[in-house]
Write a structure and sequence with these properties.
Pdz3 Domain; four-stranded antiparallel sheet
Length: about 500
């Protein structure tokens, strides 16, 4: 039975959408929106509008929007073929290097999930990474970042195609309603088939590579933007207060800003730590504090608060409740950290300055770090950024610490104002996040991802070297079989931990 043509009821898509609703994979409003979109696309298709516009419906609800615009710019930008072929060769090595890291991390996550099954579960929508649907991915900035990321990804494929003499028929976006779900560059099919495998490898690698390169370019730009922020009230605040510690007994609360310790200004963590090191357990010290009000989300008027400092070593020993083995291990650990008896202990968790959230990016321009340290930090930073929106409910930073920031009047972008520079920070953050995630996931050795095609062509090239006298069709079949097995194995490695989180 035809479930779509001739005005009949679209049975299969409605069945799929119903399953998504029943199992909670998508919320009701999303199902309604997708259903309305699907019926609209069907109407446009039945009345010939899609053909006239050179659009095409694929995968039921996805609309393929083709255009030949941009081909002139493609010709212009790809004229330096020598450079782009070099970039394509660089892309191959970069992508295979990152692919090994991707496979290692996926296998590590798989083994960890098998050994220690996750407690609790995540909403199914949180594994889709769809702007506005996934709980920790808002709509506007991530959607704009996704459009840009998809465009440069596919345009990079197109540039490699032209740099190697392949024709590009069209470009386009894949959309489901207002949400871009993909992009494409269409090289001529026969050109792709006839191209040498090395050239195809360059073409496949170019997309993920440009996303990874863009990740680090935007990370440097984010570092520059972050360097323009200062704290509205220079000082130190804590994320949490330890029960029955000196700060707790004095009434200091999370996000209260400590500006002075015994009359000495502590505008950053370094000065705070230095001042605390000069004090001892039992000292009664005056802390100048700007209180934070949870009710109205604002800071009040500073006041002086006397605080009796505790003993840091004794605090950790007291947590053992007299257990001999625990006391022995804790004493050894404290000795290894050089924590001695009588050291001052305020009783706060994660004390940090008001610019903590931006300092982690602006350190790229901080002279206190060596070039090697900066390279190491920048290399791992995108991976650590992936969890930021999950930790802060879709925000790019702790919302309380965001309110502590203001733009420096001497900063080159100060004319945008604090909110304007913060908005720029958010957009660049999501550009990094989306580019890295797309480049990272595209290098999974799974067909139809770019990584899967690279593994297939790479395997064929290696087999050709060791099977020179064999029938080329046999080599082709063997390479296809190995690629198919790799795809199935990696799908299992990726999907099993995800299903364990969802189910």
């Amino acid at each position: 039975m035809d479930g779509e043509a001739g005005g009949k009821i679209p049975v299969y898509p409605i069945l799929i959408l119903s399953i998504l609703l029943v199992y909670g994979i998508l919320p009701l409003w999303t199902i309604i929106a997708l259903s309305g979109w699907y019926l609209l696309v069907l109407y446009l298709e039945d009345n010939g509008h899609l053909d006239r516009w050179n659009f095409e419906r694929v995968l039921g609800i996805v609309l393929m929007i083709r255009t030949t615009r941009g081909r002139g710019f493609l010709e212009y930008i790809s004229k330096n073929r020598k450079f782009w072929r070099f970039f394509g060769e660089f892309s191959i090595w970069l992508c295979f290097l990152v692919m090994f890291a991707v496979v290692f991390l996926m296998i590590f996550a798989f083994v960890s999930s098998m050994n220690s099954p996750p407690q609790g579960s995540l909403p199914a929508t949180d594994i889709l990474f769809i702007p506005g649907v996934t709980s920790f991915v808002p709509f506007w900035w991530p959607a704009l970042a996704l459009v840009f990321t998809l465009l440069i990804h596919e345009y990079s494929h197109g540039i490699q195609a032209r740099a190697h003499g392949m024709e590009v028929k069209s470009f386009g976006l894949l959309v489901a309603g207002p949400i871009p779900v993909g992009a494409f560059a269409e090289p001529e099919h026969m050109d792709m088939i006839m191209a040498p495998r090395r050239e195809r490898l360059r073409l496949f690698a170019a997309g993920p590579a440009i996303n990874l390169v863009a990740t680090f370019i935007f990370l440097i730009i984010l570092g520059f933007v972050s360097s323009g922020f200062i704290a509205s009230n220079p000082g130190i605040h804590a994320i949490a207060i330890i029960d029955e510690g000196g700060a707790d007994e004095a009434g200091i609360m999370p996000y209260d800003i400590i500006t002075h310790v015994d009359g000495v200004g502590v505008p950053d963590y370094s000065s705070f730590s230095q001042q605390m090191d000069s004090l001892g357990a039992g000292d009664v010290i005056i802390f100048t504090v700007i209180p934070y009000s949870v009710e109205n989300g604002e800071w009040g008027i500073s006041s002086d608060i006397p605080v009796t400092l505790g003993d840091k070593r004794q605090y950790y020993l007291d947590r053992c409740d007299g257990e001999v083995e625990c006391l022995s291990e804790t004493n050894e650990l404290l000795d290894s950290y050089g924590i001695e008896e009588g050291e001052a202990f305020l009783g706060v968790s994660f004390p940090r300055s008001g610019t903590f959230q931006t300092e982690q990016f602006s350190l790229i321009f901080d002279d206190r770090y060596s070039s090697l340290e900066k390279i190491a930090i920048v290399t791992i930073k995108p991976l650590s950024m992936l969890g930021t929106p999950m930790s802060y409910d879709g925000q790019t930073m702790d919302i309380h610490e965001r309110m502590m920031l203001e733009v420096d009047d001497d900063f080159v972008l100060s004319s945008l104002g604090t909110e304007g520079v913060l908005a720029l920070f958010d957009f660049i953050f999501w550009l990094i996040w989306v580019n890295f995630l797309l480049g990272f996931l595209n290098l999974l050795p799974i067909i139809p991802f770019d990584g899967g095609h690279m593994v297939k062509d790479g395997t064929h090239s290696i087999l050709s070297m060791f099977m020179k006298d064999s029938n080329p069709l046999r080599v082709e079949r063997l390479a296809g079989s190995i690629s198919g097995i790799t795809t199935i194995v990696m799908l299992a490695v990726v999907m099993i931990p995800i299903l364990m989180l969802v189910v």
